[in-house]
């Protein structure tokens, strides 16, 4: 039924443990992503059948699945944990889509594994719905990301600070290999497995890369692109530990993530990020820090010499220029400019500076440039008007400016208060209609519809979400 080809499970001992999901009491389908199912070549009717549901809940294994929990390590808030791994996720296997693309199918929240340490191996409904909504919005907007194929409730409760409904997310990714996966073997001095892992990642993600150095360069490029996408949306990942940084460049782990409403460059939401390590404007720096960890892992495969260190350093240091280029492209597009000049940087920064003064709403300012409503978002409207004169002068001869802006600026983002509202309704009343409304609106971020209007609004003072919690 599903065409599995499990290349990771064919790696030798030491990369994973074979672990089946733990069945749940009373699974119910909450959401099924039919367009993604089609993309993967999965049979939608089967997925919607009772057997499909049992697979999505982890109660039965589809033919060809070889469930494993993957080993990884990671730097968490700067400190190294040599042994993390999938503590609450199981990789069912890899499907090869009709076009030949390979995707991991993983259940997140599927019960304990040998990597669970003291955790219960479960997820509660809230983070599952958040990851579903946000990752699918990111995909709709073209940001590299893991995807959400399905969400099911388990009919069981999980204990966080209180009792909460349990859920399982079916996550799809081009792989779940993280910077922390490399760190796992590097920390153990296991050069053989490090080499096998590098070969696996090259074959899978960067087939024309010529070796470890080139692999590093590709990851640097992929991350520069992805982080620029985050910045252009006001997205704050919240927990950019190296175990949450994918070597494919896909955004992974939407635990405490959030989008900013009012523009504040040092914005932090996550309750556990007390020092703002993962603040919005720190994300490119943290990416470099994380990539330096990957570089350290790869040096032994690059000859382990002073030259190898110098080369790895040079590659990591290529990030800022690559990132700046992507940033300029992205923010210039938000102003309607496709072929930015260096002088456009000042124009963009002037606007951001004005936005910061009054914490103008990030999404509405850019969306409002298309319809003349941006001005209303500013504290100092005269300064905005002066800026707009220069901006208009810059774009007046660009015939496609309006279209470029329309594609670069979403009409709406997954606002925190709307996500919280959808979660609260689902949790407290079993009412998934706010979730489904939000899901539909976020999948179509360029279209206006009357029933979606309120989803674009910033929070009222009593709706503001100040903190997101990692109690996932
Ligand atoms: N409820 C839990 N039970 C067991 N292990 C857990 C649980 N929650 C988190 N972990 C483990 O703690 C580590 C860090 O968790 P983190 O929140 O970064 O990841 P995650 O959200 O579980 O998963 P992913 O990164 O795959 O999206 C990981 O090894 C994860 O498997
Ligand atoms: Mg994680």
Automatic annotation (TrEMBL):
- HAMAP family, per database record: SelO
Residues of the active site: 243 (proton acceptor)
Molecular function (GO) terms listed?
AMPylase activity; ATP binding; magnesium ion binding; manganese ion binding
Keyword annotations of the record: ATP-binding, Magnesium, Manganese, Metal-binding, Nucleotide-binding, Nucleotidyltransferase, Transferase
Q: Which family does it belong to?
A: Belongs to the SELO family.
Q: Which organism is it from?
A: Paracoccus litorisediminis
Bilayer-crossing residues are none
Question: What does the UniProt function comment say about this protein?
Answer: Nucleotidyltransferase involved in the post-translational modification of proteins. It can catalyze the addition of adenosine monophosphate (AMP) or uridine monophosphate (UMP) to a protein, resulting in modifications known as AMPylation and UMPylation.
Q: This chain belongs to which protein, by name?
A: Protein nucleotidyltransferase YdiU
Which gene carries the instructions for this protein? ydiU
Its ancestry begins with:
Bacteria, Pseudomonadati, Pseudomonadota, Alphaproteobacteria, Rhodobacterales
Residues binding ATP: 85, 87-88, 108, 120-121, 171, 178, 253
| Reported cofactor(s) | Mg(2+); Mn(2+)
């Amino acid at each position: 039924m599903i065409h599995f080809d499990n290349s990771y499970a064919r790696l030798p001992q030491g990369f994973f443990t074979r672990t089946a999901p733990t069945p749940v009491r009373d699974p119910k389908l909450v959401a099924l992503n039919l367009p993604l199912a089609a993309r993967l070549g999965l049979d939608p009717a089967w997925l919607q059948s009772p057997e499909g549901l049992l697979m999505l809940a982890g109660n039965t294994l589809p033919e060809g699945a070889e469930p494993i929990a993957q080993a990884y390590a990671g730097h968490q808030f700067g400190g190294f944990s040599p042994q993390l791994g999938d503590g609450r996720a199981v990789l069912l296997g890899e499907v090869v889509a009709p076009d030949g693309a390979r995707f991991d199918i993983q259940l997140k929240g599927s019960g304990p594994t040998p990597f669970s340490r003291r955790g219960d191996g479960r997820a509660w409904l809230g983070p599952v719905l958040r990851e579903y909504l946000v990752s699918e919005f990111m995909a709709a907007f073209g940001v590299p990301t893991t995807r959400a194929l399905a969400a099911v409730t388990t009919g069981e409760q999980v204990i966080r600070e209180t009792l909460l409904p349990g859920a399982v997310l079916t996550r799809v990714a081009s792989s779940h290999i993280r910077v922390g996966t490399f760190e796992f073997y590097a920390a153990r001095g296991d050069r053989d497995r490090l080499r096998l892992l590098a070969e696996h990642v090259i074959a899978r993600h960067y087939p024309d890369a010529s070796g470890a150095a080139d692999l590093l360069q590709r990851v640097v490029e992929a991350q520069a692109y992805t982080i620029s996408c985050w910045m252009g949306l006001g997205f704050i990942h919240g927990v950019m530990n190296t175990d949450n940084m994918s070597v494919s460049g896909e955004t992974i782990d939407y635990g405490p993530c959030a989008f900013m409403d009012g523009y504040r460059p040092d914005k932090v939401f996550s309750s556990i990020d007390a020092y703002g390590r993962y603040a919005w404007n720190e994300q490119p720096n943290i990416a470099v820090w994380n990539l330096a960890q990957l570089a350290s892992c790869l040096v032994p495969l690059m000859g382990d010499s002073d030259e190898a260190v110098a080369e790895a350093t040079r590659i990591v240091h290529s990030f800022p220029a690559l990132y700046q280029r992507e940033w300029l492209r992205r923010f210039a597009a938000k102003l309607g400019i496709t072929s930015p000049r260096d002088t456009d940087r000042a124009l963009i920064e002037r606007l951001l500076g004005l936005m910061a003064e009054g914490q103008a709403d990030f999404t509405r300012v850019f969306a409002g440039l298309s319809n003349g409503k941006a001005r209303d978002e500013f504290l100092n409207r005269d300064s905005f008007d002066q800026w707009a004169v220069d901006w208009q002068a810059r774009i007046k001869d660009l015939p496609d400016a309006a279209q470029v802006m329309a594609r670069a600026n979403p009409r709406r983002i997954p606002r925190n208060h709307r996500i919280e509202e959808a979660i609260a309704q689902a949790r407290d009343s079993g009412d998934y209609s706010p979730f489904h409304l939000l899901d539909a609106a976020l999948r179509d971020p360029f279209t206006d519809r009357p029933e979606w209007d309120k989803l674009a609004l910033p929070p009222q003072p009593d709706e503001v979400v100040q903190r997101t919690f990692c109690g996932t």
